[in-house]
Amino acid sequence: MTSRERRWLNPNTGPLKLLERNLDILVSRFLYPHLERVWNPYSWLLERRFGLTEAEVSPSGWPPGGNRLRMLLISDIHTGIFLRPKTLSTIVTSLMELHPDVVAVAGDLVTGNVSELVPFLDALAPLASARLGAWGCMGNHDYIGGDPEELRKHLEGIGLRILRNESVRLTHSGTSVVLAGIDDLVMGQPDWTAVTAQHGIPHLLLAHNPDHFYEAAARGVPLTLSGHTHGGQIRLPHGPPIIRQSRFCLDEGAYAFGASLLVVSRGLGSVGLPWRWGADPEALLVDIVAPPTDAR
Questions:
Q1: pLDDT (tens digit, 9 = 90+) per residue, 214-240?
Q2: What is the CATH number of the domain that holds 141?
Q3: Total structural domains within the chain
Q4: DSSP state of 267
């Protein structure tokens, strides 16, 4: 990327974003609950179109030594009326059979209210069995309704810790890796000073919105993991997303800028409409390896 790729309209701010957010709230809370019994195809679609994407990355600045770190990235689960707990449980169980070293959940665990998470806690609980634990960050939908601290407490009760402008030091094969989570760009209060206060610049950053990427790169973060965009959720063949959620066109996949890398997941769930087209739901299995010594 050059950092010059950007939309003329910033999707993170402004009156259109405010309108979208309010429509999202109205639809999620007041319309679809009444339609669920007669039209809710998303769990059916998820069971048939969910896929696992595998990638290997070697971020410049990654700590030398040690074995590859296998990370499972799940984003935009959007528990709520579009998703059935049994469907999510089946997917989580199959993903944990891959034996990731660590699990990262990149925000938007709920759709319209934090209370939507409760029926899904048992389905999410296996994520915490990863050897280095399960960690997450907050997304914009995690702030839409209810108390975000309630969501955080529910998740910590099953062993999934939310990093809200916080970092943690993990030890893998004798190598120390700093993992951090920054608060959501749109609805949260991101604080880089707090992110770096305890352990310095993180090696790995969880940022729900990929538009954090260029600031992360400027601060020397080797690898950022994001979601938020749904890959557009609806996109025509060989075309861009109909609705782009990233100001910098960071829609899905892997990106490089300077010495930093970004991986953006299309995510697991759906919002607005219980449907996806051209941007199937996914989780990512990311193998992170240190670059050769002569490449640093």
A1: 999 999 999 999 999 999 999 988 888
A2: 3.60.21.10
A3: 1
A4: -
